[in-house]
Structure formats: structure tokens, C-alpha cells
Amino acid sequence: MRKTAFLIFALLIVFTSCEDTRNTLHQKYNELTQRTDSLKTAHGKIADMHETVTDEKDALQERLNDMQIADSSALAHLSRHEFLLEKQETLLGSMEELIQTHKNFEKQYEAEQTSDVELEAKMKELKTNYNEITSNLNDIHSELKRIEEDQKSIRDGIKTYGDVDN
């Protein structure tokens, strides 16, 4: 009788600890889901900003070409902007793919197709991805701000050049 009671007690402890582990993982998962949602929003805003800055670069390039200004420094800046913007576009695309893996994981999790061990490993991977994406988005945002300031200087220079002609 004692052995049976001990066995039942041991099984209760095992089941309780498994449930606690699952609850802890569920809390971590909910936090990760919220972070992923905010990451997707931030990614969208940065992608929109990137598109705006790219359009502005194209407009400045066209304006300089139309004015036939031989200011090599402005053209060099725009060439550098083009290089940076293309690099950012590639990076934004790869980050979008990583964000999609987060969304795909949500579907797996909600369908309960993962064990606790797999869930914990995948969440660790996703957290690493999250940190990498956040860092890259911050870098791109800073770079875009610098490009915007540089383009403003170029626009101001074009206005000054245009005023001299008139």
C-alpha cells in the first residue's frame, strides 16, 4: 500500500512539474508573440521610411542630371546613398523572412505540434533572431536619418545653385 501511495505521489509531482514547465513556456511564448508583433510594426515603418528615402534619392538624382550640375561631391553622395539603400533593401527582405518564421512558429505552437524541449529550443532561436532584427532595424533607421540629412543638404545646395542662376 505504501509503495502504491508513493508511486501515485511521485506521478503527481511529475505531472505537476510538467504543467508548470508548460505554463512557463506559454508565458514566454506570449511575450515573444507580443515582441514579434511590435517587431513587424517597426519593420513596416522602417521599410516605408526606406522607400521614401529611396524615392527622394531618385528625385534628387534626376534633378541633378536635368540641371547638368557637375558637382561630383553631390553625385558621389547619391551614389553612396544608392549603395546603402540597396544593401538595406536586401537586409529588410531577409528580416521579413525571419519575422515570417516567427509567424510560422506561432501556427505550430497553437496547433501544439511541438514538445516542451523543441518549444524551448525554438523560442531561444527566435529570441536570438529578434535581437538581431532589432539591432539591424536600429542601424538601418540611423543610416536612413543620416541619408535624409545628407539629401537635405544636397537639396539646399541645389536651391542655392538655382538662386544664383536667376
Task: Explain what the structure shows.
The chain is an all-alpha fold and 166 residues long. It has one domain. Helices cover 93% and strands 0% of the residues. Helix 2 runs antiparallel to helix 3. The longest helix is centred in the first third of the chain and has 66 residues, at 2-67.
Estimate what percentage of residues fall within beta strands. Answer: under 5%
Instruction: Label the structural class.
Output: mainly alpha
SSE string, helices as H and strands as E: HHH
The overall pLDDT, averaged over residues, is 81
Ends apart, CA distance between termini: 105 Å
| Low-confidence sequence ranges | none
Spatial extent as radius of gyration: 26 Å
Would you report the number of β strands?
Answer: 0
The structural domain count equals 1
Helicity range: over 70%
What is the overall shape?
rod-shaped
How many H/I helical runs?
3
Biggest sheet details: none
